[in-house]
Specification:
The chain has about 725 residues and is an alpha+beta fold. The strands form 5 sheets. The chain has a 7-stranded mixed β-sheet with strand order 12-24-23-22-13-20-21, with helices on both faces. Strands 14-19-18-17-16-15 form a 6-stranded antiparallel β-sheet, sandwiched between helices. Strands 7, 8, 9, 10 and 11 form a 5-stranded antiparallel β-sheet that branches.
């Protein structure tokens, strides 16, 4: 299967995007389509053996629109925002003048004398026709697109506008004829309605064009963050190269004030890094040898050498751009519902308008009155807001999230974030700092501390678990030499194993001892460590338990605040960890978590999430390790800490670049307006102001001045 992006021309409403989606989805070989109205593009997954790009383009053109691959130059000039602005200003001025001539008398405004004299009605009607005709001419593109769509049997919003405004204008021209010919002294004219419809629609298109431009600018802004050149050290000499020519393993020189051109690790020196462009963290972070640094971040002070580990499209910045683009191109379930509704809304409105006129005629009403009623149905019907609101919210929400270091992989994940009522947390690296340190080394009889640490660190050197890294760091700090480990194995949920000096050595939790059938002679000492909130790590050589290592990983202050906020939001919080129950209890108490489950294997975490879901809960799982991947995939929404393993990130729906639970709070709050809007609509209650239904305010804002109709909630 191949993924291909197309730019689509001629789309102006949700009915347009629904028509394009339907036409392309019907092609043999297309497995998935995502049409984005705001960005005027489409992403499809298709089988290259069954379908060609030309077939897709032909299908879109047959539906009445234009299409071309996004990697080709745009062959059609699009109306720019300034063009919309120019048409809007002129149309608005003409419409205001038109309203003066049509409604000025009723408002008590002074009118020219010749309009107040006998026969003035004809002059007034003629002036109104000329003014309305000017607005129609300025916005003739709406009529051309709408009529074209009708001929292709795919009526869209432009079709509805063309019919409504056109019918109002022509009906009024007929009225002008009746007045001038003397067949009627007065006649209801709708010239101002025809002009007002076009002016308001142009205003909407102007706002829409602005939204598209902002989105394009936002993505372009992300792209511009990456530096164009890099300073590398080759053969002992500094050499400036293009950033896209960097390769993995290159030694890159980072001076004060320069941007980092690739993801990597500091191998010499130190710096103070401004990571706000990626994580939203306002305060610079001190970095030293061994620390990770990310593309596009600025070294505000210091000098260091780094080893490039991810370059080009593999960097964190490139992945952010990709995720933001994919998320804004995807559709949330509520957006798909809106598209389905608006897809048949237009033809239904046309049928209703026709029926309205016909029924009034059958009831004995005059032709003028029947046509007036039919035109009214066309004029008041406008599904643009229905089709535009949800994709706009998704686009702004995902963009806002990206700026704060919260990456939604799809629009569905953003919507689900607002439905969550339970949060499950991993411990190490999620609730805790993820930078554990060894506090206790307790060897068994006849074994030394040095022998215990040497064996454990030799195995942990091959592991990426943060607890293992603490053992390795301890060995380095105390100058304890390591040995070569062979046949390294990762024992899921238990620990690790490998051969050292011909003996099978293992490091892990209490379950590892049980699995190996070895008596836990150090249980009392291990339990004492657990009561202090420390994690006991058992070390086995052959069939002998040679000691226990106590490791502490402090709970982050931000985790305590985040858990408190989760509770304030009405969410249930549960801690899931592979540590024993005593350690789990100690950590839960420190973090303020009421429910916890310890001694969990990866499949146990997944099973616990399943149980919560079966009880009717919508669960968010937050974790960072390999053992969290099954639970992340099972949860209604999985959130991976950005500093976690690749497999955890791949299994999640949301990536939190910040190694901080505060980002998870922001993510769930960002999705809350979707759920709030749906609940209020379903309850039959409208909103007093735009600001009321878009709480919390950090998500996005609309034009708060609009005041909508309040209706009492239905009786329970």
């Amino acid at each position: 299967m191949k993924k291909q992006r197309f730019n689509i021309t001629g789309m102006n409403c949700a009915a347009c995007s629904a028509r394009v989606d339907k036409a392309v989805s019907a092609l043999n070989g297309v497995s998935e389509t995502a049409v984005n109205l705001l960005k005027n593009n489409m992403v499809i997954d298709y089988d290259e053996t069954k379908l060609t790009i030309s077939d897709v383009v032909a299908a879109v053109e047959k539906a009445g629109y234009g299409a071309f691959p996004a990697d080709e130059p745009d062959r059609q000039s699009k109306e720019a925002t300034d063009d919309f602005k120019k048409r809007l200003v002129v149309s608005a001025i003409i419409t205001i003048i038109l309203m003066y001539f049509s409604m000025g008398g009723m408002a008590g405004l002074p009118l020219p004398a010749f309009l107040r004299e006998t026969g003035g009605e004809g002059f007034s009607a003629l002036i109104q026709m000329l003014l309305a005709g000017g607005v129609v001419f300025l916005n003739r593109g709406l009529f051309l697109n709408g009529i074209k769509a009708l001929f292709h049997k795919s009526p869209n919003m432009d079709s509805l506008i063309a019919l409504g405004s056109g019918a109002a204008f022509l009906f009024s021209v007929y009225g002008l004829y009746k007045i001038i010919s003397g067949h009627a002294e007065t006649f209801h004219l709708y010239f101002e309605s025809a002009a007002m419809i076009l002016t308001l629609i142009t205003f909407g298109r102007f706002l829409e064009a602005g939204a598209k431009k902002k989105t394009a600018d936002a993505v372009a802004g992300l792209v511009s963050l990456a530096p164009q050149t890099a300073l590398v050290l080759r053969d002992g000499k500094e050499e400036a190269v293009s950033a896209d020519r960097l390769t993995v393993g290159d030694t890159v020189i980072i001076k004060a004030g320069s941007r980092i051109p690739a993801d990597g690790v500091i191998i010499q020196g130190n710096g103070v890094i401004d990571e706000s462009s990626l994580t939203g963290e306002s305060l610079p972070v001190k970095k030293a040898t061994g620390d990770q640094v990310l593309t596009a971040c600025i070294n505000t002070a210091g000098y260091f050498l780094m080893r490039a580990e991810k370059v080009g499209q593999e960097t964190t910045l490139a992945q952010i751009i990709k995720l933001v683009d994919e998320a804004t191109s995807s559709k949330a379930p509520i957006a798909r519902l809106a598209d389905r509704i608006s897809g048949f809304f237009v033809p239904v409105v046309i049928i209703l308008a026709t029926l309205t006129a016909a029924v009034w005629l059958l009831c004995g009403a005059s032709m003028e009155f029947a046509l007036s009623a039919g035109v009214s149905v066309l004029v008041i019907s406008c599904p643009c807001a229905l089709g535009l609101a949800t994709p706009t919210a998704v686009m702004v929400g995902t963009g806002r999230g990206a700026k704060q270091g919260v990456l939604f992989k799809s629009a569905a994940a953003l919507e689900m974030a607002g439905r969550i009522d339970s949060v499950a947390l991993d411990k190490t690296g999620t609730v805790t700092e993820g930078r554990p340190r060894v506090t206790d080394v307790l060897p068994a009889e006849s074994f030394s501390e040095k022998e215990l640490i040497s064996m454990a660190a030799s195995l942990e050197k091959l592991s990426e678990h943060p607890l293992g890294q603490a053992v390795v760091n301890y060995a380095e700090e105390h100058a304890i030499s390591l040995k070569k480990a062979a046949d390294f194995q990762q024992k899921e949920g238990l620990g690790i194993a490998g051969g050292i000096d011909g003996a099978i050595c293992q490091v892990g939790n209490a379950r590892l001892l049980e699995k190996a059938g070895i008596e836990n002679t150090l249980e009392d000492r291990a339990q004492a460590l657990a009561k202090q909130g420390k994690t006991p790590i058992y070390c086995i050589k052959g069939t002998c338990l040679i000691g226990v290592i106590g490791i502490t990983d402090p709970v982050k202050d931000s985790s305590k605040a985040a858990v408190s906020t989760f509770k304030e939001m009405g969410l249930d919080v549960i801690l899931l960890t592979g540590d024993n129950q005593k350690t789990a209890r100690a950590v839960a108490e420190i973090a303020g978590i009421d429910a916890f489950v310890g001694e969990m294997l990866p499949q146990d975490k997944e099973s616990e999430i399943r149980k919560l879901q079966q009880s009717g809960k919508k669960v968010a799982m937050i974790g960072d390790g390999i053992n969290d991947a099954p639970a992340l995939a099972r949860a209604d929404i999985g959130m991976a800490i950005g500093a976690g393993t690749d497999i955890a990130i791949a299994s999640a729906d949301v990536v939190l670049i910040k190694n901080d639970l505060a980002a998870a709070v922001f993510a769930l709050r960002l999705g809350a307006p979707f759920c709030a809007i749906l609940k209020k609509i379903c309850s039959g209650r409208f909103f007093t102001t735009a600001s009321e239904f878009l709480s919390p305010p950090e998500c996005f804002t609309l034009f708060g001045g609009f005041r909508l109709i309040r209706r009492s909630p239905p009786p329970r």
